[in-house]
Amino acid sequence: MELEDRVKQIQQEAQEAILAATDLQTLEDLRVKYLGRNSILRQEYSRIGSLPEEDRPLAGQVLSKLSNALQKLCEGRKSALLQQAEQQKLQAQALDVTLPGRIPRAGHQHPLLATLDEMVEIFLGLGFIVAEGPEVEDYYHSFEALNYPEYHPAMDEQDTFYVSDDVLLRSQTSTVQIRYMETHEPPVQIIVPGRCYRRDTVDATHGHTFNQLEGLLVDEGVTFADLKGTLEIFAREVFGDRCHVRFRPDFFPFTEPSAEIALTCTLCDGQGCRVCSGTGYLEVGGSGQVDPNVLAGVGYDTEKYTGFAFGVGIERFAMLRHSIADLRLFYSGDMRFLEQF
Ligand SMILES: [Zn+2]
Q1: Measured in angstroms, how far is the CA atom of residue 275 from the centroid of ligand 1?
Q2: Which of 124, 135, 178, 318 could bridge to 115 as Cys pair (CB 3.0-4.6 Å)?
Q3: What is the 3-state secondary structure (H, E, C) of 246-312?
Q4: Half-sphere exposure of 102 (CA within 13 A, CB side)
């Protein structure tokens, strides 16, 4: 075959292949095949020497024209491929500025915390200050200093989460009473909000983890009437004038006398319902005059000082406040529930 025919054929083949290349690697392979060191074109160049002398210049021109043409084709295809890639990238990153934006969900205070804050606020108004203490406590501050007899059932592993023989998760915020009195002289007027733990079976009105608000007032001449007055003012502040506080004799090792605190059931307005077992009242905590043994234990003069203490469950208050019959809802994390507050 004559040189010109071969050149035509090479050009035809190369052009088809180059224009059909869909990626840069294929294109590079084609460039090497047609223009590289051992390429088809090089083979043609090496044949020039065997041509008659007068034909050589023309053959050289034809081959160099082919070489230029193929180079141009490769470059053109390369920039087309690069442009295409760039366009695809841009398309993938494309932003539709007409789409509505995502509206971030605004959080708000959990109903339990909101209830706690409201309760704390009322006591601050009555002259109490907030005291805090550790949730992981020792045996002494949990039971011994609170006048528990040696074999009280509350100390049992059935009721309390023990970390070790002497260390436990506090089952009431009363532990902070002791810690505070150990380091402060009377008069004492504190509230202690905080989390507590008990080995309770979880049901509609009990949880293994719950929040308490403890109050302690120690001064000269403090009586049970002061306790009643304080809690009545507090209950009316939270639930309004229709709310009634009911005190019934109870027993706690660290108070004497002791009283259970119950408030008018808000679910039935005191008429009696399933939640209050038909009594019209819901128990919210315990209270009493501080046992002189407890005061003596922290070195207070029991001839001079008396005091009262109370502890109420935050969950119970939140249930009453929002007329909720099952406290497990507060811990469910269910947004449909939480969004209502
Ligand atoms: Zn009721």
Answers
A1: 5
A2: 318
A3: EEEEEEECCEEEEEEEEEECCCCCCCCCCCCCCCCEEEEEEEEEECHHHHHHCCCCCCCEEEEEEEE
A4: 2
Strand 305-313 with 209-220, pairing: antiparallel
Task: Give the sheet arrangement for strand 209-220, strand by strand.
Answer: 129-130, 188-197, 209-220, 305-313, 281-290, 255-264, 245-252
Rounded distance from Cα 134 to ligand 1 centre (Å) = 35
CA of 325 to the centre of ligand 1 (A): 10
State in Å: Cα 264 to ligand 1 middle: 8
Which of 32, 49, 50 is CA-nearest to residue 41? 32
- Distance from residue 225's CA to the centre of ligand 1 (Å): 27
Helix (H, G, I), strand (E, B) or coil at 219: strand
Q: What is the pLDDT of residue 160?
A: 87
Close Cβ partners of 170 (under 8 Å, ≥ 6 residues apart): 133, 134, 135, 136, 137, 142, 194, 196, 197
Shared domain check, 125 and 65: no
| Domain that residue 203 falls in | 111-338
Instruction: Assess whether 157 and 43 both reside in one domain.
Output: no
Q: How many angstroms separate the alpha carbon of residue 320 from the centre of ligand 1?
A: 9
Domain identity same for 161 and 12: no
Report the alpha-carbon distance of residue 292 to residue 300 in Å, rounded: 9
Average pLDDT per consecutive 10 residues, the chain (341 residues; last block may be shorter): 82 90 90 87 85 86 89 92 90 85 86 93 95 93 86 75 90 92 95 92 84 95 95 90 91 92 88 89 92 94 96 89 87 88 85
Structure confidence at residue 180 (pLDDT): 95
